[in-house]
Amino acid sequence: MDFAKLLADINNFVWGPVMLALLVGTGVFLTVRLHFLPWRNLFYAMKLIFTKKGETEGDITPFQSLMTALSATIGTGNIVGVATAMVLGGPGALVWMWISAAFGLSTKYGESVLAVKYRETNSIGEMSGGPMYAMRNGIGGTVGKVMGVMFAFFAATASFGIGNMTQANAMAAALESGFFVPTWITGAVVMVASLIVLTRGIRSIGAVSGVVVPAMSVFYFCMTLIVIVMNFSAIPAGLSEIFRMAFSFDAVAGGVGGSIIATILTSMRWGVARGVFSNEAGLGSAPIAAAAAQTDHPARQGYVNMTGTFFDTMIVCMLTGLAISSSGVLGTVDPETGKLVSGVQLTVLALGTVFGEYAKYVVAVALALFSFSTILGWEYYGEKSFEYLFKNRKAIMGYRIVYSMATYIGATMALDMVWNISDTMNGLMAIPNLICLLWLSKDIADVTFDYEENVVALEKKGVENNCKDTFADTNQ
């Protein structure tokens, strides 16, 4: 039996149409169940990012919590994933990324609410939360406990692959092609840097993420925006083609896509898949960071963390997609292989229409920063999942050290099998998480409507309201 092929087949099944429909369907259900409040309060949520409410429990600020979550989601998917989706699903895939992200706002909000509502304080006074705690404390019984163990196992396993070794591998490849840095040097530097940050825990991760994530986002935002502005004359035609192909049953791309052929089903499949891969809404990873936030109400941090989906997919992924579509490189055929240029090389070509040979340096720096931040964010996810399974503090410190050392392996080795295993585990995380969201949807709704009535309505009128009593009520 070909083990590699078996893994690939399992991975394709896990990330197949049923899973994607469940992910989007849960988002649609929660959006309607919450009376569209995550959409209606989006701008209110953005104001909360920099707001800290008096004396509150938690390890890091709401901003640092969001940056930790974004550090794990803004990564290779924003550069490589978008380009791949537009080749395999046509430029219309970009529209389906936006649509899935719109409903993903409600999913990310709901899972973050549950993470804060059911979080606990561990043996050293740190907050521990996430889907596994919501399953054990919210659903309860044997079912909740089994679901919690399953989620924690999948998340801890996935952290070494999709959050660690594959990121280190992408970073090493980018720096080698852009700056001719040997992969072993990249691996050694990342390993040491990771050890320095990770062995000091969530406060260190939050502090570093609070600097690295905004810096890397602004850098990439400026570079892609320059490309879009310089090619602005092609934007109207590009947008027209993007929306036409998103809803066409059989279409050949025009000026923005060369000879790419895609149907509405392929656009939907690749757009949703890459959108979820990028923002992780529904996978249950980001709520682990939300649980560490200093907040006075589960809904408040739910709103803060849901903005991560907006920034990740509706802003960063959109910029990559518009840069590619406006540059006219989509549909380019590699003369050496005879295949369509895809992935990181397509993004380099797009930026190359403005920056020329320097484009590869821009992309290399962006990938390096994105990948390193993802390594930091996913360590925290994996650590908290590991902590849920094994309470021993020495074992948890051992996890941090082994996790850091694994970055060297990732930077210096081929990872096809590792990628498939970790990608499968990443997808399997979503199953118990989505069941938990649907099971506890009444909890999410009760917290949301309570917060809307007692806090949001007053704050929008300029009346300050500390909701510590309300927070306590939601945790009874």
UniProtKB/TrEMBL annotation:
<feature type="transmembrane region" description="Helical">
    <location>
        <begin position="79"/>
        <end position="99"/>
    </location>
</feature>
<feature type="transmembrane region" description="Helical">
    <location>
        <begin position="146"/>
        <end position="167"/>
    </location>
</feature>
<protein>
    <submittedName>
        <fullName>Alanine or glycine:cation symporter, AGCS family</fullName>
    </submittedName>
</protein>
<keyword id="KW-0813">Transport</keyword>
<feature type="transmembrane region" description="Helical">
    <location>
        <begin position="310"/>
        <end position="330"/>
    </location>
</feature>
<feature type="transmembrane region" description="Helical">
    <location>
        <begin position="361"/>
        <end position="381"/>
    </location>
</feature>
<feature type="transmembrane region" description="Helical">
    <location>
        <begin position="205"/>
        <end position="230"/>
    </location>
</feature>
<dbReference type="Pfam" id="PF01235">
    <property type="entry name" value="Na_Ala_symp"/>
</dbReference>
<feature type="transmembrane region" description="Helical">
    <location>
        <begin position="179"/>
        <end position="198"/>
    </location>
</feature>
<dbReference type="InterPro" id="IPR001463">
    <property type="entry name" value="Na/Ala_symport"/>
</dbReference>
<feature type="transmembrane region" description="Helical">
    <location>
        <begin position="401"/>
        <end position="419"/>
    </location>
</feature>
<keyword id="KW-0769">Symport</keyword>
<feature type="transmembrane region" description="Helical">
    <location>
        <begin position="242"/>
        <end position="265"/>
    </location>
</feature>
<keyword id="KW-1133">Transmembrane helix</keyword>
<keyword id="KW-1003">Cell membrane</keyword>
<dbReference type="GO" id="GO:0005886">
    <property type="term" value="C:plasma membrane"/>
</dbReference>
<keyword id="KW-0472">Membrane</keyword>
<dbReference type="GO" id="GO:0005283">
    <property type="term" value="F:amino acid:sodium symporter activity"/>
</dbReference>
<comment type="similarity">
    <text>Belongs to the alanine or glycine:cation symporter (AGCS) (TC 2.A.25) family.</text>
</comment>
<keyword id="KW-0812">Transmembrane</keyword>
<feature type="transmembrane region" description="Helical">
    <location>
        <begin position="12"/>
        <end position="36"/>
    </location>
</feature>
